[in-house]
């Protein structure tokens, strides 16, 4: 039986920065063009596979790539600028570093990766989409909204993607973490208030406050001030409403970082208001699943380990089958020969 193939690839991102990635091709792709999906990871120093080694290993995007290959869909995933295989390009000068990690460069890198994917002889450029996890979904939305329209995906999957401004989402994350750690209101509330002030100042001026509390300093290193200026100003609802293609909003019911109700449903409401000849979208909120789309076994389980939840695989297969991109039979580990349900329950 033919097997999936992984190919090391490289391309030039924003400003000519060299980027390395992995192209995964499904079995039987030789001699025919197949649909493809660009995979964009979440925030921080996350590598092409969805990991921040050695502390955080999820293999999320590596697993999604394998899942898509089982559907007959190719994928491209890549390391971020200045990180992992691309570490040699990271500037040492503080001002050069701040410029290097501007938000727009990450968006332009994704656009370059998308163009590189579509240009491959194995890929059907008319069936090229994007799967963005968490911050990666925002990058996908911003990429699709770029002037010129040279990197607009034919379809989007927004997985665990914020539907509200990042400052609001971050405040909720900080408050939740503080409550879990037992921080009293007298300590927690001033921290949350200062976070609001930091985000507002960054968005308005691109400058940090002079005296940031120790509990917030790791979030706002000086070199990220220009990144935050643009990222804090994003309006996910406006971005998704302006996109004209099919969208799957995918969320874990136990996501502790991005709210399935306040974020996924906000994106869904914006999609429902689109005025299109065919308004194709779905919102899949999967019970018992984490931010990283893994099963949550008990309260407090972060859901980092193990394979992607089977229910997530089923939702993805139903979505791509509906687009005409996937084979009707599942071909992923543990699910060979099963057919995707003819209808899926979306919330």
* Count of individual beta strands: 8
How big a fraction of the residues is strand?
15-25%
For the biggest β-sheet, the strand order reads: 1-2-4-3-5-6-7-8
- Round the mean pLDDT to the nearest integer and report it: 93
Order of helices and strands: EEEHEHHEHEHHHHHEHEH
Q: What percent of the residues sit in helical stretches (DSSP H or I)?
A: 25-40%
Structure overview:
The protein has 347 residues and is an alpha/beta fold. The chain folds into two domains: 5-164 and 234-323, 3-Layer(aba) Sandwich (Rossmann fold), CATH 3.40.50.1820; 168-229, no CATH class. 37% of the residues lie in helices and 16% in strands. The chain has eleven helices and eight strands. It has helices at residues 60-71, 94-100, 103-119, 135-144, 166-180, 185-205, 214-217, 225-232, 236-242, 260-272, 310-323, and strands at residues 5-12, 18-25, 34-40, 74-78, 123-133, 156-159, 247-252, 281-286. It has an eight-stranded mixed beta sheet, sandwiched between helices. Strand 5, helix 4 and strand 6 form a beta-alpha-beta unit. Helix 3 (103-119) crosses helix 4 and helix 6 (185-205) crosses helix 8. The two termini are 38 Å apart. This is Alpha/beta hydrolase.
């Amino acid at each position: 039986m033919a097997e999936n193939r992984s190919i090391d690839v490289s391309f030039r991102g924003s400003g000519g920065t060299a980027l390395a990635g992995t192209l995964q091709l499904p079995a039987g792709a030789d001699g025919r063009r197949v649909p493809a999906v660009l995979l964009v990871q979440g925030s921080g120093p996350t590598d092409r596979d969805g990991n921040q080694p050695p502390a955080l290993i999820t293999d999320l995007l590596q697993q999604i790539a394998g899942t898509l290959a089982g559907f007959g869909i190719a994928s491209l995933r890549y390391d971020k600028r200045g990180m992992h295989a691309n570490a040699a390009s990271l500037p040492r000068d503080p001002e050069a570093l701040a410029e290097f990690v501007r938000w727009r460069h990450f968006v332009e890198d994704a656009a370059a990766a998308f163009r590189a994917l579509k240009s491959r002889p194995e890929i059907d450029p008319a069936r090229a989409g994007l799967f963005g996890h968490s911050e990666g979904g925002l990058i996908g939305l911003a990429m699709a909204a770029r002037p010129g329209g040279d990197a607009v995906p034919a379809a989007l999957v927004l997985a665990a993607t914020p539907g509200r401004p990042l400052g609001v989402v971050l405040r909720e994350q900080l408050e939740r973490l503080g409550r879990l750690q037992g921080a009293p209101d007298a300590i927690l509330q001033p921290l949350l208030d200062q976070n609001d002030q930091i985000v507002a100042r960054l968005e308005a001026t691109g400058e940090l406050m002079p005296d940031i509390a120790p509990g917030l300093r790791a979030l706002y290193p000086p070199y990220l001030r220009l990144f935050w200026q643009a990222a804090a100003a994003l309006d996910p609802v406006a971005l998704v409403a302006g996109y004209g293609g099919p969208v799957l909003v995918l969320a874990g019911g136990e996501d502790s970082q991005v709210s399935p109700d306040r974020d996924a449903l906000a994106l869904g409401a914006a999609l429902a208001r689109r005025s299109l000849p065919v308004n194709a979208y779905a919102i899949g909120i999967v019970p018992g699943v984490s931010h990283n789309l893994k099963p949550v076994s008990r309260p407090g389980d972060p859901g980092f380990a193990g394979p992607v939840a089977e229910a997530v695989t089923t939702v993805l297969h139903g979505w791509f089958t509906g687009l005409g991109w996937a084979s009707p039979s599942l071909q992923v580990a543990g699910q060979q020969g099963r057919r995707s349900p003819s209808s899926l329950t979306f919330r």
